[in-house]
Amino acid sequence: MPVDPMLQPLVAGFAVEAQEVIQKVTMDLLELEREGLENDALARIYTRLGRHLHTLKGSASSLGLQDLGDIAHKLEDALAPLKAHTQKMPRAVVDVLLHGLDLFMLRAQAHADGRGDHLPDPAAALAQLVAAAPPPEEAAALPGGAFAQVPPAAATPPPAAAGAPSEAQALPDPAAESSDAGWRVSAAQVTSLMREVERLREVRLRVEERSRELERVSALLAKQGLLAETAEARTLLSGTGRSLRTDGEETSDIVDALEEGLKAITTRPTRTILDPLQRMVRDLSRQLGKEARLSVVGAEVSLDRRLLEKLQGALVHILRNAVDHGLEMPAEREKAGKHHEGALTLRVEQQGNLLYLEASDDGRGIDLLQVRKSAEKRGLITAEESARLNDNQVRELIFREGFSTRSDVTDTSGRGVGLDAVRATVESLQGRIEVSSTRGQGTRFVLTLPVDLGSSPLLMVRALEQFVGLPMLAVESTQLARPDMLRVGKRRTHLEYQGQLLPVVDLGARLGLRASSPPAEGQPLLIVQSGGKRVALGVDAVVGDRDLVIRPLPSEVRDVAAWQGAATLSRGELLLILRPDWVVSDSEKVTVSAASRRALVVDDSLTARALHRAMLEAGGFQVHLAASGARALERLQVDTYDVVICDLDMEEMDGIELIARLRERKDTRTLPVILVSAHDTAVARERGLASGADGFLSKRECAAGRLLAEVLDVMSRRGSRA
After folding, report:
1. Which 8-state DSSP code applies to residue 512?
2. Which residue of 5, 126, 207, 240 is surrounded by the most CB atoms within 10 Å?
3. How many alpha carbons fall within 13 Å on the CB side of residue 55?
4. Which alpha helices (DSSP H) does 480-554 contain, by range?
């Protein structure tokens, strides 16, 4: 069957992706031939093989390459019995699978070259493999004769017509073909070049800062009066300032051009992986006797090509799962008062360095009772464990390896491979996946992934003395508060905006820096949107827009809800970037006590210091920072604090040595100290507490929100002993 000309460029990309996947499968097959593998190792390899083959099948089917989908399905059939018994793979089966992979890749390359309509029927080629691959003495080792299911009549393919080459002969070796355009550049080289562009951007920021400093010097000289002694200096400074501004503008243009050029090379529109899914949804719906339509929002967003290639398989799994399990049959939908055609929606949104992918359907929703029963039947949980799970935990079971609500295996589902592969893909990209569902109304999957290619436009704002950034894409507009625009209620204030009433959120209160209050007249209000929600965010000042590279937070603190990353300003200051979805969420606000307490945070990590500060300030603390134990001692000579939070492992003076020094001094002998460590082990915990610390937290526990509670508990215990 010829490929749709509109999809031809995508088929070429699929062939490249398939080559990489097949290489991984080949290495796993060779590993399975080895002697002495433990059952756990065998199980992991079989799981990977199942995921890779399922991805090949789904991706091929999404492009309408049914012959490749059939081959991958046969390979899955051959693998299934061995996977079920977790046994070493017989060499004859390895031979068959390797031959099948060769056949898959040859046909994929033919489709990519536009020669797919001249390919012979794959059933004959598969039968030929079965006849040639396993020797007679090893035939008994084949599991269930997966390939033997090919009809006997096809076992001996008809002789090729005169002058017509066989399938293998008709397909040239891709490695033998030379490329006459472009250069081969590795991803590492492009990434390295992008890092250099980022360094140049930081230089540009410093040039702008120097220009502002020069202007301040000129202003100071002008205040001295028009003295003859300073005339020459003022003339030189003025000329240098103009030149510096011109150089800064040119540097900015160069940086922008370099970055745009690199993005053009390394990114492509999301539609390149989303458009083929339309055909996949249509074909699968017809196959299952259902009706469905896929709507895509945000297909124009451009992303890293590598990220798109990895996400394609995950989206295929989610949509196939939605059509197969989520959508009802047309008659059932009409009986329930729904349109006979099911609605699937894919929404893509990028905010700063975070990518949101949302896949939703209006189907029957997740049947929690059926999920419990299926998980128990497949041995994933016991009945006792099932009884203790809440609804959210039950929904999480659908991501377990081996989970399926199907009792039989079909072309679409039943193998227990699908959503677990999706979660594995998302987590390998340092992202997360969440599912929500309402019975009878539908299901929604949200994938949140970091993207770190290039800079992002940010709006820098201030609440009290705290400076934070917001992704510009999340800021719809900015305006000043006026009494006639506000609707002040007993519990909440709303802003009248474009015919709607938007809740007003005070950023200072949202961060826990002060009690919430209605915005004053003339106070800046930002209309922030995320995930279909909008709020009016009240800030104390809008500092201005910045074009900065947002870095992901360290893994230990990546789960802090408020922050999506951090950027570095021209003087090296750290700017934390707010998550727009957290800003618009309805989370309860932290109540700040009237009497502010003082805390000293000691850590040689700039990011850790900033994050601990944000958490403590949210609890009403006034926080000072120290980058080393020695600097902390200097601080304690001139300031008093209610608590010290200190990193256990620092180069100049570690936390244990700092505690020893504090306990030697009369004025700090009873000062509460909490040690924080990246090592969450019993040994580290015992070592820290034995040193005289009042509390010990891992950085993962801090990220989970334990820091403030531990600080208050330690202060309470110290106070009671006093």
Report:
1. T
2. 126
3. 29
4. 507-510
